[in-house]
# Entry
Amino acid sequence: MAEKRGAYAKSSKRRQALSEATLRLVQEKGHRSVTVSEVAELAGTSEPTVFYHFPTKESLLISALKQFDDENIRGEGAEAGAIADMGHRAEVGVRRPHIPLLYAEMAGAGVDREHPANEYFQGRLARSLKVIATDIHRLQNEGAVPSGIDAEIAARLLLAAWEGLQFQWQHGPEFDIRAHLEWHIRAVLGPKALSTDPVASEGPSPTKGNP
Amino acid sequence: MAEKRGAYAKSSKRRQALSEATLRLVQEKGHRSVTVSEVAELAGTSEPTVFYHFPTKESLLISALKQFDDENIRGEGAEAGAIADMGHRAEVGVRRPHIPLLYAEMAGAGVDREHPANEYFQGRLARSLKVIATDIHRLQNEGAVPSGIDAEIAARLLLAAWEGLQFQWQHGPEFDIRAHLEWHIRAVLGPKALSTDPVASEGPSPTKGNP
# Structure
């Protein structure tokens, strides 16, 4: 039993190393240029080992997207600040060179519920909605967002606008995605949503309390 | 000169017939199953003629999406009602069997600015934003939407949420996309945006005027 657990842990560690290596290579040169042999080399293993863990290049690329999310989506207990940070993250997100293209291509494939990318998008959606809704509840408890707003509906709308603005930015002329998203957050969650301390955000003295 | 114009008109008519035939076939069986020879047959022409007008199956599929938009996006002068109709159209849209998959796949490819789908998405974005912004201006003139709202920013946000909710619906579990989108329209444009006559929308007497 202990041995089995050991073998499982080793395999899981290997998969993790392969996902990380793939993500690094995608970020460096774009997924179309990444070869399985490069991934094997960077992870310090062989091509057959890569294919043992990930039977297709596509499954390897999906694991790289998951790895990206693990590094970028807030974990349980660390949701505070997700709303405040959203505009900034949207701006950084669209300017990343290679991840958006991989994400968009997989999104197209993932509409097909039989495609392996679909499971990735389902999981990512549930995870993102939970993080955003949790932060909305926190802001409601702090009085920065009206308690009458349905946090689950609002979370869906904030995420939808983020994805949709990203879609517009990727396909069309550039615009200020951060300003649009922050305008949107205030429209959906109320004018105080982006500042739990309205005085601090307006005045020159960030330590001053509410009047 | 007159002859040239005649040849151009004939060519343009042929292209139109091919786009329409492709769209019908995509709607019937999905783009992956459509063959160029079927398109030729339905349009009453030959395969070489199809390839003369559309050098690849991909360019034919993009022309089918344009055709779909010509049939579904409001034209100039007919923008009134675009906002009121949005929730309903979103609901019908996600339940269409084959168009969303083609749209999503092309969206993935179209992130690449060199890909022919990119031009389609640029054009569609500009066209949709214009229709929505025009209808917002109309609602502002009627007093149903506060005049302080920037119609161009609001149009971007309405379209973004629509696309983003569609994205969530396509990849994840079903939800009431119409209710979410209408909640969103009220959040962005104010509570009276979906009814220029608030009494009519609430009471049983739609002809009764404002109090």
